Each structure stands twice: as structure tokens, then as C-alpha cells.
């Protein structure tokens, strides 16, 4: 993540306000090289300074993610994989990453849309195979909203508490991603064990 890119992102948010957040998060969900690890922690810092409100940041960032994801979804829906492969280079889209994302989506199904928001690279691309696979749009939007709202709010929360040190998040974004993934895996294991125990209790009654 270059210093120039981060400077452009912070300037965009400082000048554009909530509209800047919407635009940047939409671009991130449209495979543009705009990392949420720079956008949201800085927005969280501005919450600390009193320039933004946390509910508004969570709302508008999620709205931006939805807009960008839906656009990418319909690119995949109408253009299919051939369109993405042919024109992806103009969107700075790595076909290798797309192929990995497709395998991820095909293996884990619709819920991938939710989980992908917490996985680097995948969250930028997942809407394309979802559209190409003709995933139901209502379900797609629902999972996108849930995942984006949690991820965006989490990053803004960290930025709020780090204050002027918010840029630590972008420098250690891989560590943050790893922590979130471990947390999700732990939560999934707990969920599965809990429901298995509940099922056993029902059988014993």
C-alpha cells in the first residue's frame, strides 16, 4: 500500500466527507485498488475528532460496499467469466486471483459472500463469480450487507481507538486480517459444536 495512495484516500475523505467514504468503498468492491484497511481506520480517527459520527460512517461505508458489489455482480451476471478474463486487465484485475476466488466460491457456496468480506483479495473479487454463477440477488445483497457492515465497523472502531496512530492498521493489515480470520474460524467451530450438542439433547428427550 503506497504512501501516495493512502494520501489520496485521506484527502478524498477529508474533502468529500461521507460521500467520499461511499465512493471509496464502492471502488473497493469494484476491484479497484482501494483498501478498506486505509479508508475505514482513517474514518474512525475522524470520528474521534468529532468530524464524523460512528452510525453514519457504518451506514455510508456499507452503502458504498453494496453499490460497488452490485455493479460487479451484474458485470459477472451479464458478461460472465469471458468478459472478466478479457477486460479484467483494464480494471487491474489479476485473473489468477479471480480463479482462486471462483474456486473459493464454488467450494463454500453462497455464504462465501459474507465470509469473503474478512478475507484479503477475495473481498474485492467475490461479486464477479457470484454474478456469473447467477446467485440470487436478494441473498447476495443480504450477505454483502452483513459482511460489509461488520468489517467496516470493525475497522472504524479500531481507527477510533488508535486515534492519530490509525495508520498502524494499514501497515499491519495482514496481521489484522489473520486475527479476524482466526476469530471467524473459532466462531464457526463454536457454532457447529453448540448445534451438535443441542441436537444430541433433543435426541435424548
Give the secondary structure arrangement, pairings included.
Elements: H1 3-16, H2 18-28, H3 36-48, H4 54-87, H5 95-108, H6 112-116, H7 122-125, H8 127-132, H9 137-162, H10 168-171, H11 173-204
Description:
It is built from eleven helices and no strands. It has helices at 3-16, 18-28, 36-48, 54-87, 95-108, 112-116, 122-125, 127-132, 137-162, 168-171, 173-204. The chain folds into two domains: 3-171, no CATH class; 172-205. 80% of the residues lie in helices and 0% in strands. The protein is mainly alpha-helical and 205 residues long. The model has no long low-confidence stretch (mean pLDDT 79).
Offer a quick outline of the entry.
The chain has helices spanning 3-16, 18-28, 36-48, 54-87, 95-108, 112-116, 122-125, 127-132, 137-162, 168-171, 173-204.
Number of strands: 0
Number of domains: 2
Instruction: Assign a percent range to the helix content.
Output: over 70%
Rg calculated over all Cα atoms: 18 Å
Keywords:
mainly alpha; 11 helices; 205 residues; 2 domains
Amino acid at each position: 500500500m503506497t504512501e501516495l495512495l493512502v494520501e489520496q484516500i485521506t484527502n478524498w475523505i477529508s474533502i468529500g466527507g461521507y460521500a467520499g467514504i461511499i465512493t471509496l468503498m464502492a471502488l473497493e468492491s469494484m476491484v479497484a485498488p482501494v483498501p478498506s484497511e486505509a479508508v475505514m481506520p482513517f474514518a474512525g480517527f475522524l470520528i474521534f475528532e468529532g468530524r464524523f459520527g460512528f452510525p453514519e460512517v457504518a451506514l455510508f461505508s456499507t452503502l458504498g460496499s453494496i453499490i460497488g458489489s452490485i455493479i460487479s455482480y451484474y458485470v459477472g451476471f451479464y458478461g460472465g467469466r469471458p468478459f472478466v478474463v478479457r477486460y479484467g486487465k483494464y480494471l487491474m484485475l489479476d485473473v489468477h486471483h479471480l480463479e482462486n476466488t471462483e474456486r473459493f466460491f464454488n467450494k463454500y457456496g453462497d455464504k462465501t459472500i459474507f465470509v469473503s468480506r474478512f478475507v484479503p483479495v477475495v473481498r474485492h473479487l467475490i461479486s464477479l463469480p457470484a454474478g456469473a454463477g447467477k446467485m440470487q440477488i436478494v441473498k447476495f445483497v443480504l450477505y454483502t450487507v452483513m459482511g460489509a457492515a461488520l468489517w467496516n465497523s470493525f475497522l472504524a472502531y479500531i481507527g477510533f481507538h488508535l486515534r492519530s496512530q490509525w495508520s498502524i492498521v494499514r501497515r499491519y493489515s495482514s496481521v489484522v486480517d489473520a486475527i479476524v480470520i482466526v476469530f471467524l474460524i473459532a466462531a464457526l467451530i463454536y457454532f457447529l459444536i453448540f448445534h451438535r450438542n443441542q441436537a444430541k439433547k433433543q435426541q435424548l428427550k
